[in-house]
Amino acid sequence: MTLTPEPERTAGRTVPLQPLLSDAVIALRAPTQVWSGRDGDLGGTPVDGVYHGDVRHVGALTLECAESAVEYVSLAPEGASHVVFGGLLRGVDDDQPDPKVRLVRDRRVADGALAETWTVRSHLPDAVRVTLRLRLRPDFVTLHDVKAGLAPLGGAPGVSVAVSTGSATASAGPRSFTLTADGATVTAALDGTIEAAWPLDVPARGEAQAAWSLALHDDTLVVRGATGTWPGARLREGDVPPGADPRLGRWLATALDDLDALRLTLPDHPDDDFFAAGAPWFFTLFGRDSLWAARLALPVDTRSAASTLRVLARLQGTAHDVETAQEPGKILHELRATPLAIPHDDVVLPPQYYGSVDSTPLWVCLLADAWRAGMPDDEVAALLPALRGALTWLLEHGDSDGDGFLDYIDRTGRGLANQGWKDSGDSIQWRDGTLAEGPIALCEVQGYAYEAALAGADLLEAFGSRSPEATPEPLRPAALRAWAADLRARFARTYWVETPEGRYPAVALDRHKRPVDTLTSNIGHLIGTGILDAAEERHVADLLLDPAMSTGFGIRTMSTGANGYWPLSYHGGSVWTHDTAIAVHGMHRAGLAEHAVRAVDGLLAAAEGFGYRVPELHGGDPATRAGVPTPYPAACRPQAWSAAAAITCLAVTRSVRTPAAVG
Q: What are all long-range contacts of 88-95, with beta carbons under 8 Å and residues at least 24 apart?
């Protein structure tokens, strides 16, 4: 996922900068999210707002009391979708030291809805009257403009507001919201600001309430909220093995709730849900992210894996289209309602974009893993045509230059320059900091392809008699296994490099077929795929846990020995929780239990430092005695694959804390 800017004043000039998120409060239920300050008000920072899909419906929202300032003293996230803010109304209190008049602001978010209840509680011996006022400003600017720092002050043009008794409706084209404020006087100012005011008589030692809600609507949405409860959400702290680190249970409770809130569906198949990549910028279907989140979550839920596979199979490429990067059999990268423009990078992605080199082999790997984890045979068999398509892409279209390795290159000049999970423009570089030239053949993609070819062979062998289609020669199990063996041998000859940091697989091959020699976390994705032998897997795991790569809060994306290393670089020195979790996932599969446990301990330390809602990424600074990771302040949270990492840590913990292990 790609980083983009947002407008702030710096040294007397306007510079586009992406909003900072690390101190903001979020409540969400996909595809709706609310970002606010720690007092619950919206409008104090550029990211604040009520969003539905890819549009910010409300840009500013405040709670005011006419008789007193509201002094907030508490913030309690009660779940992914529920936050409670607590304040004092000392302007109507008595003159004693103990505060006796409190305001509780209870916020709940649902798909297309926001509701707040304001409760004034008094311990005074006499009744008190207060007037609470809601002010909100309709906005209707795109999420993309907010992220880029291009959101117009005052919101989008063409907003209309209609007021009736106890309610108001704001609209702009196909998007609208309705405020319902029973018992309030509702008005609208000339600038479009909507106000609702409640006079409340609070009895002696009693309470009074005001409540309001927003119903949000957008005809252009390409995703919908999922219904029901995610099966994995039933897992809680009590399911952690006895004697395990208590931080794991706390992280799981938050992570599973976040994953439940991140579930989406497509309108034509509402029963098949998938995980949105993350909030706020990636509240939609991302092939790679949704696949990895479902894969990491497999120990607690096979159903989401199966539904994710079906969703992506329906969108599988069927033709060659340079503009969308579509190819036959290729799995989607990203789905949006409108094109995504990334200012200052000259990038414009079409609404349905296939610019991902790894989604297709990962789709095959997830299908095989889900089948082995208990996905019903008839559901697997129904996906055999998509499996054949994905394997055909692997063999016939994944290699753009004929060197035998899967690679990528943007042929439009407007797409993503890098199409692996590290998709920022400077993510693939040499140890001296020079950027690699494409086509780029990432090391981990070869591992995915090797694993996918063998997994595809197993699936076609197991289900071949169930399918009426004739299997072409290249897709017969023996041919797939031979292709995989050849890839493995060529990888061993081509990718390994020797540098002052040691011997390890290069992050990629560049356009000249030279191994790009930076030591990166990408090599952790090779563990458990089978493309390395056992000694090589152990060696790579050792490197990843060395201080040059391991921070104590997870594994850095780039070694401190590289010239391009910077702890707050998006992909060049930061720590991504899912990235470390993928290495842990591989270590676990490869039988490297001691390495996996050490890496898990780092993730648990990071989870504790972030209050158990782990962001998309954090800084690559080494752990200190304070035990607090450095935030990457523009990082999304929650992020599906960061949350799903908690389940991988649970799987490792369960495996090492069996009765025999703890006996």
A: 89/65, 89/120, 89/130, 91/65, 91/67, 92/67, 92/68, 92/128, 92/130, 93/68, 93/124, 94/124
Q: How far apart are CA 567 and CA 448, in angstroms?
A: 27
Q: Distance between CA atoms of 346 and 124, rounded to whole angstroms? A: 62
Nearest CA to 32 among 14, 61, 12, 57? 57
Q: How far apart are CA 185 and CA 164, in angstroms?
A: 10
Sketch the domain layout of the chain as residue ranges. Answer: 7-218, 239-662
Locate the DSSP E strands across 221-345. 224-225, 263-266, 269-275, 334-335, 340-342
Cβ atoms of 453 and 530 within 8 Å: the answer is no
Cβ partners under 8 Å of residue 406, min gap 6: 357, 361, 394, 398, 399, 441, 442, 445, 446, 449
Count of CB atoms situated within 10 Å of the CB of 23: 10
627 contacts: CB under 8 Å, gap ≥ 6? 605, 608, 609
Assign 531 to helix, strand or coil: coil
Distance between CA atoms of 441 and 580, rounded to whole angstroms?
A: 21
Task: Return the CATH architecture of domain 239-662.
Answer: Alpha/alpha barrel (1.50)
Distance CA 54, CA 156 (A): 14
At a CB cut-off of 8 Å and minimum separation 6, what does 522 contact? 420, 422, 442, 443, 444, 507, 508
- How is residue 496 annotated by DSSP? E
Assign 280 a pLDDT band (cuts: 50, 70, 90). very high
* Cα(215)–Cα(455) distance, integer angstroms: 46
Q: Which of 631, 456, 652, 544 is nearest to 24 (CA)?
A: 631
Q: What percent of the chain has pLDDT over 90?
A: 88
As a CATH number, domain 7-218 is 2.70.98.40
Residue 247 pLDDT > 60: yes
Q: Mean pLDDT score of the chain, rounded to an integer?
A: 94
Beta strands (DSSP E) in 111-142 are: 113-122, 128-142
Closest CA to 477 of 589, 590, 375, 387: 387
For helices 246-261 and 640-656, angle between their N-to-C axes, nearest 10 degrees: 140
Residues 6+ apart with CB under 8 A from 470: none
Nearest CA to 503 out of 488, 523, 487 is that of 523
Looking up tokens 């560049």 gives 510
Q: What is the pLDDT of residues 97-145, one digit of tens each?
A: 999 999 999 999 999 999 999 999 999 999 999 999 999 999 999 999 9
Q: Is the pLDDT of residue 662 over 60?
A: no
Distances (CA, A) of 152 to 141, 142, 278: 8, 10, 24
Is residue 147 very low, low, confident or very high in pLDDT (cuts 50, 70, 90)? very high
